[in-house]
Amino acid sequence: MKIFIICSVRGADSTYLKKLNGYAKYLEDDGHKVHLPPRNTRQDAKGIDICKQNMEAIRNADQVHVFYSPDSQGTHFDLGVAFALKKKIIVVESVQYINGKSFSRMLVEWMTEDL
After folding, report:
1. CA dist 109 to 17, 88, 97, 99, 104, Å?
2. Count of other CB atoms within 10 angstroms of residue 14
3. Mean predicted confidence (pLDDT) in 79-96
């Protein structure tokens, strides 16, 4: 299976990157092909080109796994692409949501419904 991991890139610290790489390795050891943006997307490209690279990788993915951070603009962009392409998501990590509408609550709803 091809899996795209949505995660924070800009400002990611070494502990976070180690966790992401460990998760990608876990999936790859299980036989999956993984696109991890800090590792597989050319981060030295222009912003529009980074978005295009991720869009194509999401389009080609069977599933999208999410490490959600409300502070990451790129995460929100990639989630919009995945939503538009009606991709199945797995939320690996997210902030706790509160009562009422929130993006993190919507991710849980997305996981349980067909688009």
Report:
1. 27, 11, 12, 14, 9
2. 7
3. 93
DSSP state of 65: E
Phi and psi at residue 47, to the nearest 5°: -55, -45
Give the pTM: 0.92
Could you give phi then psi for residue 76, rounded to 5 degrees? -65, -40
Distance CA(88)–CA(73), nearest Å, equals 21
**Cα-Cα-Cα-Cα dihedral sign, residues 22, 26, 27, 33:** positive
Contact 104, 94 (CB under 8 A): yes
Instruction: Supply 102's token pair.
Output: 């929130």
Confidence (pLDDT) at 105: 84
pLDDT (tens digit per residue) in 22-48:
999 999 999 999 999 999 999 999 999
Q: Which two tokens stand for residue 29?
A: 């050891």
- Complete domains list, the chain, with CATH: 2-112 (3.40.50.450)
Report whether 40 contacts 22 (CB < 8 A): no
